[in-house]
């Protein structure tokens, strides 16, 4: 395994560095996990339009979860 060198020449990149500096990589991992594939397999078999749809789906799921959490908090506040 090759160590990645930081762009500023300051040594090695942290293990999560690439995921932090390239947020689309996190999306790729989430899609690949949902499909039961590696990221490479997912990218080879999934077009950009479908990746955009997955991104929208994950965004909507997050919004639904946030609303459910807020509703539960409000319900507990008045219980």
Describe this structure in words.
With 79 residues, this protein is mainly α. The protein is built from four helices and no strands. Helix 2 crosses helix 3 (39-45). The chain is elongated, with a radius of gyration of 18 Å.
Write a short abstract of this structure.
The chain has 4 helices and no strands. With 79 residues, it is mainly α.
Tell me the radius of gyration: 18 Å
Helix content: over 70%
Largest sheet descriptor? none
* Structural category: mainly alpha
| Total strands | 0
In percent, how much strand structure appears in the residues? under 5%
Q: H/E series, N to C?
A: HHHH
* Unreliable segments of 5+ consecutive residues: none
Number of helices: 4
Indicate the multimeric state: single chain
Distance from first to last alpha carbon: 55 Å
Tell me, briefly, the overall form.
Answer: elongated
Please state the average pLDDT score: 86
